[in-house]
Every structure is written in structure tokens, then in C-alpha cells.
Amino acid sequence: MELTSKVAKTKESKNILDRVFKLTENNTTVKTEVLAGITTFMTMAYILVVNPLILGDAGMDRGAVFMATALSAALATFVMAFLANYPFALAPGMGLNAFFAYGVVLGMGYSWQFALTAVFIEGLIFILLTFFNVREKIINAIPTVLKNAVSAGIGLFIAFIGLVNINLIQQGGAIITLGHIQSPLIVLSLCGLLLTSVLFARKVKGAFLIGMILTSVAGMAIGLVPSPGKIIDIPPSISPIFMAFTDVPKSQIFSIDMLIVVFTLLFVDLFDTIGCLVGVASKADMLDSEGKLPKAKQALFADAIGTTAGAMFGTSTVTTFVESAAGIAEGGRTGLTAFTTGVLFLISTLFAPVFTSIPAEATAPVLILVGVMMASSMLKIDFNDLTEAIPAFLTIILMPLTYSIAEGLVFGIVSYASIKLLTGKGKVVEPSLYVLAILFIVKYAFAG
After folding, report:
1. DSSP secondary structure string, 196-239?
2. Nearest 10 degrees: CA dihedral of 419, 423, 424, 426?
3. For this UniProt entry, which segments traverse the membrane (predicted)?
């Protein structure tokens, strides 16, 4: 009788999840979605370590930043899960945190409280832009060829991140060079890449997750990477940085420098998020017949709300993570994937020693393989039409070379609009895309 009751409760739980996240409609299962969410979390858990290190350089309490990172990531990802029902995860973005610490605080000489104020203002502006559909219109104005190019470019970008993270590629030669291939850590990563590749090619469910776990365990067993000192730790307090921007003088809030900082954050985050959303959604076949992203407005609210709340918690700009593609590659198609990732961010506050012990050598193979999968979007580009091939190629190649999704997308938009106009095909370009192209040209013309 008790067993029957448990089975009935399990079925009821699955039915609720099916209704909330439309699993059957999206041809997926609870098991697949949860596994995808775990995989996404494992590939982006590094932010729990890296973000406190970077913002710590700005003088912030690293333990408090760890908590702010986990909480803002969980909140924004939950908004994505329930409002948009998309498998995208969010967290404080790389690059934006570096600008926060090294650009605003150490470079311009302002306090970290000033920088948090800029992030808070940015979040409020994003909420307004999203409410009035400005960001959605920008997404819909981007032609399908550039959306496919962005997907492929992100593939190269995250694969490049994986290679750099394990020092297989490093600075040297003219620009970069091959790392020390005999390094035991690089050998560990390559073995992890081979193992995960074989599992993935054989279509083993959870290939990425299994590969990361086995690579981590192997590295710890032979002493190449440190094992966690303990399993559970008391979550640090967020109080040293919570709502810290309330003490910033009004003279600084209404200054030209604040305007410049907010504009920079807006620009980078806007096109990083748009690039990530359309690129990953394109690869997951989530775009409609017109190449538009359904429920784009709801998805964009997630990072707007996450950024605003994140500033209150005490962290830099929250954005959609390209590592979401890892979970999508595992079959994630709904908000249940994102919900799972968000729950793990909350759990991570208790099990920080374990989650932060996953080495780059274990996550890099996954990033590289996700790059392989996303790069296949190049097959959808008509390279016989040079008015489409050239902008697409510039988009793809500049993302890894500039280490920025936003810069690749900007060059793609400007070149697409310019080449189409000057070859007599200007009518196929959305008017709003011309406006964007002009704004980008002006921005770079007057860049410091």
C-alpha cells in the first residue's frame, strides 16, 4: 500500500512538471531535463570561484561575493525557467566583472560601491527597455544568416575558452602559441576530451557529466588537482556588500563618469545577451519559421531582473551564459533544465568545497565538444552569396579573436548592412538594423 502511494505521488509530481514546463509538447522527459540542468551547472560552476576572485581585487569581501554570485544566478535562472520556459542559465558575466573591478574601480579610481550603483542603474534601464520591447525588436531585426553565424561563432568562442583554460593555447609567438603539451594537467584534459568524445559519439546519456566526473576523480586520485578539504561548509554572510550602493554620494551618481560606465555596461551586456540567446536558440532549433525567438521578451526579463537584484546582493552584471549550450546538447529543451541549474546554485552555497573543486581540466573537454556541435550552424550559411558569407564569417571569426560575443555581433551587423546596401540589396535589411549599424559606427569612431 505504501509503495503504491509513493508511485502515485511520483506520477503526480511528473504530471505537474509536465504541465508547468510543457515537457511532452517539447518532446523531452524529466530525466533528460534534470541531467541537462546538472550538466549546465557543472560547466558554469567556475563562476562561483572566479567571480569572487575578480571582485575581490576591487576590495569586496570574497565570501560575500560568493553568496551574491550564487543567489543572483539562482534568481535570474528561476525567472528564465518560469517566465520563458527556456533552458538557459544566467550568472554574473565574465568580462563584465573584469570591467567592474579593473576598469571602474582600479582603472577609474572609484569605489566598488560606485560600480555596484552603475550595475543597479543598468538593470533598471534594462527592465524598461525590455518592457517596451526595444531589446526584442533588436533580436528580431537580426537576419537568420547572422543568427546562424552567431551560433557558430559562440561555438568557436567557448571552445577557445576551454583551450585557454587548460593552457593548451597560451600567449606566445606572434600572438598565441601551443602550450606545453607534456604538462600532466594538459595530458589529463586531453584524456578527458578523448573519453568524453567517445561517450558522446556513442550517444551515451549524460556523456558530458560522466566525462567531467571521471576526469575530476582521475585528477584527484593521482594528485594533479586538489581534492575538496571538506564536503559541507557554512554559507558566508552577504551583509558586507548587501545594498552597499546606498552610500554613494549623489554627485557621483549624476556624473559624466557614471553615464559612461552605465553606457558601457549596457552596450556589452545587451549584445552579449542577444548574441548568446539567438546563437544558442538557433542551435537548439528554438527559432520560429521567421527566424524569431518566441518569448524573447520573457527571456530578456531574466537578465534584467537578475542584474538589478544582483546589484542589490552585491555582484556585477548578470547575463545569459553560453555554457547553457552544454545542457542543450544533453537534450535540455525547457525551463526544467534552467530550474535544475538554479536549484544547484542554491545548493552550492552549502557544498561550496565540492562544487568549486571541479577543475578546468574537467570542464574544458565539454566546452570544446559543445563548440564542435555549435559550429555545425555554419552548414546553414550560403557561402555562395558573398553578401551573406562575408558578414557571417566576420561574426564567426571575431568572437574568439576579440574574446567577445558582442564585438563579433557588432561587426556582423555593420558589415551585413553595409554590404547589402552597397550591392543593391538594401531592401532586404530591416530599417532598425541600419540604425544599429550607424550607432555602432559612431561609437567606434569616437571611442577613446
Report:
1. HHHHHHTT-TTHHHHHHHHHHHHHHHTTSSPPPS-S--PPPP-T
2. -10
3. 34-54, 66-90, 110-134, 146-169, 181-200, 207-225, 258-280, 300-322, 334-355, 362-381, 393-416, 428-446
